[in-house]
Design a protein that fits this description.
Layout lengths: L3 E3 L1 H10 L9 E3 L8 E5 L4 E5 L3 E3 L8 E4 L3 E4 L4 E11 L11 E12 L6 E8 L12 E5 L4 E10 L5 E14 L7 E2 L1 E6 L13 E3 L2 E9 L5 E10 L3 E8 L4 E6 L2 E2 L5 E3 L3 E2 L8 E3 L5 E9 L5 E5 L1 E9 L13 H11 L6 H8 L15 H8 L1
Length: 381
């Protein structure tokens, strides 16, 4: 059962921490029955670590990698402060950091605030193996978190080895500084816009079948508030040509990103652009305008690839001066459907179905990579 309670003390502290700027609307979605992840703040290192409970990753086989989706877990922020960067990791039972390819993705969700472009829970962070370690100037920009703020965390893990990989923990390491000082000067919030917003397909899956040849998929929405776009990046699958974010009202292309490929032609990473300069903070976003995300693919296989396509842009956003970041309407149908999807066992619905049909082969220890055209196709799908 979802329990809602207002966070008046948290909101008051947030107002003080923001130096008089409006605190965001926050409601706390209880979800106390969920397993608890661990949050640790190390002030000397300037890091806030959210670490999930250990889980065994099944063994891989000749046909496909071992894969598992973690149970969704709750975690409460231990201290008020500001995020200026992050990295995601997976560690084994001995605490050794595993190759980044073992972590397909990790999501941190704020169920107490809404997305900029949809009335669903805010994706505070959605990182994958191609995300890298993005950061901003911590004196200039920070993403606020508040003591007692409840977050949800979920991940998918890979194992190409022929034996079970036991006790693996996924974690996100935030570059973090405590609040109370005069900086950062600007308080930014995460946002994303997906081609399958707001809730996706069955089980919340936001990938889609990729037809042969060239194809284009898009989605349009209006933002809940006006403000400034500080930075942007995105996520696509193999065979993507580009991902684009456009002001559909004016026709202006705000950002276009072409994937950076690895030696076999698979997507290695997506470019990230920071819009702030010495004389401006970024690109204006107007709540009266409609914005569009578009992803273009060119599938050369001659066959439809189930769940082979995906396209999502994400970044940081500064609400306009005097504007409060919106909370959530927990009675909204899209909000409730999206939250229900997140609470599902990802090993029996969307995410795992996607990965069985769309997975990237990573060579096991001692296995040589192939470099001919047929191997490249196998690498992609």
């Amino acid at each position: 059962m979802i329990r809602i309670r207002s966070l008046l003390p948290v909101a008051a502290a947030a107002l003080a921490a923001c130096g008089g700027a409006p605190a965001p609307e926050i409601v706390q979605v209880g979800l106390d029955s969920l397993p608890a992840a661990t949050a640790t703040f190390d002030e000397s290192r300037g890091e806030l670590v959210l670490e999930m409970n250990p889980i065994d990753i099944p063994a891989g086989s000749a046909d496909h990698e071992g894969m598992i989706v973690t149970p969704i877990q709750r975690v409460d922020v231990p201290v008020t402060g500001f995020v200026s960067g992050f990295r995601v990791e997976a560690v084994d039972a001995n605490g050794t950091i595993l190759p980044i390819a073992r972590l397909h993705h990790l999501n941190v969700i704020d169920p107490g605030r809404r997305e900029l472009f949809a009335p669903i829970a805010l994706r505070l962070l959605a990182a994958s193996k191609e995300t890298g370690s993005p950061s901003v100037n911590p004196m200039l920009v920070g993403m606020p978190l508040w003591e007692g703020q409840r977050l949800l965390i979920k991940a998918m893990l890979h194992n190409p080895e022929p034996q079970v990989l036991p006790g693996v923990k996924a974690r996100v390491v935030f570059t973090f500084r405590k609040g109370g000082g005069p900086t950062p000067f600007f308080h930014a919030y995460a946002w994303q816009l997906d081609t399958k917003f707001p809730v996706g397909g069955d089980g919340g899956i936001k990938s889609f079948d990729l037809p042969p040849g060239r194809s284009e998929t898009s989605y349009e929405a209006q933002p809940a508030v006006s403000g400034t776009l500080v930075g942007i990046g995105g996520h696509v699958h193999d065979f993507a040509k580009y991902l684009e974010f456009t002001d559909a009202t004016t026709g202006e292309v705000i950002w276009r990103g072409e994937p950076i490929l690895d030696s076999l032609g698979g997507v290695k990473e997506m470019p990230v652009q920071r819009f702030y300069r010495w004389n401006r903070m970024g690109v204006p976003i107007d709540r009266s305008h409609t914005y569009r995300v578009t992803v273009v693919y060119d599938n050369p296989t001659g066959q439809t690839i189930p769940f082979g396509g995906m396209g999502v842009v994400a970044g940081l956003f500064l609400p306009a001066r005097g504007t409060r970041w919106p909370g959530v309407d927990t009675t909204n149908a899209d909000y409730r459907a999206d939250l229900a999807n997140q609470l599902m066992d990802g090993n029996s619905v969307g995410e795992m179905a996607m990965m069985h049909s769309h997975h990237v082969h990573q060579p096991a220890a001692g296995e040589e990579e192939e470099h001919d055209d047929d191997a490249a196709a196998a690498h992609r799908h």
